[in-house]
Each structure stands twice: as structure tokens, then as C-alpha cells.
Design brief:
There is one protein chain. The protein is α/β, with parallel strands linked by helices and 323 residues long. Helix content is 40%, strand content 18%. It contains 10 helices and 11 strands. The strands form 2 sheets. The protein has a 7-stranded mixed sheet, with helices on both faces. Helix 4 links the parallel strand 4 and strand 5. The structure holds 6-O-phosphono-beta-D-fructofuranose.
């Protein structure tokens, strides 16, 4: 029977992680369980950084970005010794199940812990939206809106100066954020890790737009694309005579991660946190809780780790038609 659960956040923070912690803690308490927070992700598991969390301890965090528990990327947890130490600490604290809120790398770590026999449930949270097992992950929507706000602003200044702007968005090896930001921001071109880019084609398109009297051009580049902002800027600078536009580049970086979560992320996080508690109550472990076809669902870790979500190529085509 479950008495004590623990929750941690791991990997890159994502807007909505706090809402997920709050949901796990409050739903856990409503089941009559004791709830613990673990500081600084897997590192805190290894260092035994547990703290009891009550209902009020997770008050006032729904609207805040980041994670109240802290997060870390932990090399030691990648070793068997590190994971065994973490597991000993969990047993010592009397923890019956652990909730891991995080993205691809974090869920791979959680899977390793679950392979050692510890009851783990994951909650899909990353701005990259690269996790198989959830159509959308906590933090993506807010990060996307932050990127869009930047794109809209850049278009204004680009028009004033007849410039082309390259905006680089995060996403690691997944082009989801770049594709959606490009589609919603009306980009002239999008570069993605999943699709080969012909920089000559982009240059020709920019020239054509310039010749047709367009005042600005916007290219969204994924950080993981072969032609990320740096590579594309270098290419355009080499060929600036025939572009028409002069080129500027902006890398949004961690700005995308720091925002206050929007309504969608708060609601998604609240639902998935409850989904994790429900999975624990069913004693369904070694699974990721995500949203599939608008329904909170669980997927076994075996089916998700080591994989990256496929890009929706039809949306890429749509962005091409609309630009
Ligand atoms: O996984 C989230 C993410 O923001 C990626 O998009 C990015 O590549 C990476 O984390 C950056 O990592 P760090 O915060 O460790 O620099």
C-alpha cells in the first residue's frame, strides 16, 4: 500500500513544472499520502535532499516559471553506482513511488531507475516537445508564445530597415518549436534538424521577396538544424550582394524557458500531475504520463526512451505554402 511519494523535476526547466509539482502534491495528499519534494533532480536523490511538502508549501507557485524544487543535469546518475545510491536514499526515506517531471533525458534516467525495480512514474515536461508518449509536453505552449512575441517584434524592426532576420529557437534535436514558431510567425523560411536545408533556395526566395517589394524577411532556425542561426548567417554574409536584404541574427536561447506558464501549460500540468497520482494509485509503474488524443494516458518507458517524436511533415509543407 502506498504511504509516501516523492516528486522531482529534472533536466531543463519548463514553464508549468511548478503547476505539475503542485498537482502531484495536492492530489497525493488527497489520497492520504505523505508527499516529499526532492531538491535539484537526480542529484538531490543521490545527496538525499528530501523535504516534506504540505498543501501550503506548494501555494503561490501555479503562475511562476522555473521549478521551486530546482533542477540539474546529473552525470553521477548516469552510473549504476549513482542510481543505486539514489535508490538506497529513497528506501531509507520510506518512499513508495517517485514522480519524475522532465523531458527526454530525464525520462531515460527514470527508466533506468525503474529497471532497477524502483516504482517510478514520469510526467512529460519539456519545451522541446520531443517525447514520444505525449502529443504535447508541459512548457511547449508558453515557450512557443515567448518565441512568437519575439518574432512579431523582430518583424517590426526588420520592416523599418528592410532587413532579413534569422531567429534561432531552442529544441535540441527536435524541430517542433521552430516549425510551430515559423508557422505561427509567418516565417519566409524554417530550418529544422529533421529536414535538409538548401541555403541557396532560401537566398533565392529572399531575393525574390526583396524584388517584389517586401520590407522584411524572417527565417526561423532550429538550434539543432545544420543551418542554425550561426551557419545561416555565415552563408548569407558570404553572399550578401545578391540577397537584397541585409541580415541580422537573434538567438532566443533560455529566454524561452523562463516565462510564467500560460493557461494551457497550467491546465496540462495540473492534469498530468493528477495522472501521475492516479497511475501510482493503480500501482502502474515504469510509465510516462502524457496527453494523447486529448486524453491523459500512460505509455510504458520501454516504448518511449531512446526515441524522438517525429516531425509533422505536413505542417512543414503548410508553412511553405503559406510563407
Ligand atoms: O531540453 C530543453 C533545452 O532548453 C533545449 O531546448 C536546449 O538545447 C537545452 O535544454 C539547453 O540546455 P541547458 O539549459 O543545459 O543549457
Amino acid at each position: 500500500m502506498i504511504k509516501n511519494i516523492a516528486v522531482l523535476t529534472s533536466g531543463g526547466d519548463a514553464p508549468g513544472m511548478n503547476a505539475a509539482i503542485r498537482s502531484v502534491v495536492r492530489c497525493g495528499i488527497s489520497m492520504g499520502w505523505n508527499t516529499f519534494g526532492v531538491r535539484n533532480g537526480f542529484k538531490g536523490l543521490i545527496n538525499g535532499q528530501f523535504e516534506a511538502l504540505g498543501t501550503r508549501d506548494v501555494g503561490g507557485i501555479l503562475q511562476t516559471g522555473g521549478t521551486m524544487l530546482g533542477s540539474a543535469r546529473c552525470e553521477e546518475f548516469k552510473t549504476l553506482e549513482g542510481r543505486e545510491l539514489a535508490m538506497r536514499n529513497l528506501y531509507q526515506k520510506g518512499v513508495d513511488a517517485l514522480v519524475v517531471i522532465g523531458g527526454n533525458g530525464s525520462q531515460t534516467g527514470a527508466h533506468e531507475l525503474s529497471k532497477l525495480g524502483f516504482p517510478v512514474v514520469g510526467v512529460a515536461s519539456t519545451i522541446d516537445n520531443d517525447l514520444v508518449g505525449s502529443d504535447i509536453t508541459i512548457g511547449v505552449d508558453t515557450a512557443l508564445n515567448i518565441a512568437l512575441e519575439a518574432i512579431d517584434r523582430l518583424k517590426v524592426t526588420a520592416s523599418s530597415h528592410q532587413r532579413a532576420f534569422i531567429v534561432e529557437v531552442m529544441g535540441r534535436n527536435c524541430g517542433y518549436l521552430a516549425l510551430m514558431a515559423g508557422l505561427a510567425g509567418g516565417a519566409e523560411a524554417i530550418t529544422l534538424p529533421e529536414i535538409k536545408t538548401d541555403p541557396e533556395g532560401i537566398a533565392a526566395k529572399l531575393r525574390q521577396s526583396y524584388d517584389h517589394g517586401k520590407y522584411h524577411a524572417l527565417i526561423v532556425a532550429a538550434e539543432g538544424a545544420e543551418y542554425n542561426a550561426e551557419a545561416l548567417t555565415e552563408f548569407f554574409n558570404e553572399h550578401k550582394e545578391r540577397l537584397g536584404f541585409s541580415v541580422r541574427s537573434t538567438t532566443l536561447g533560455h529566454v524561452q524557458r523562463g516565462g510564467s506558464p500560460g493557461a494551457s501549460d497550467r491546465i496540462l500540468a495540473s492534469k498530468l500531475g493528477k495522472g501521475a497520482v492516479d497511475a501510482i494509485a493503480r500501482e502502474e509503474f515504469g510509465v510516462l504520463v502524457g496527453l494523447k488524443n486529448n486524453t491523459v494516458s500512460t505509455t510504458p518507458y520501454e516504448e518511449i526512451t531512446g526515441k524522438t517524436k517525429e516531425l509533422d511533415k505536413e505542417l512543414f509543407e503548410l508553412a511553405r505554402i503559406l510563407d
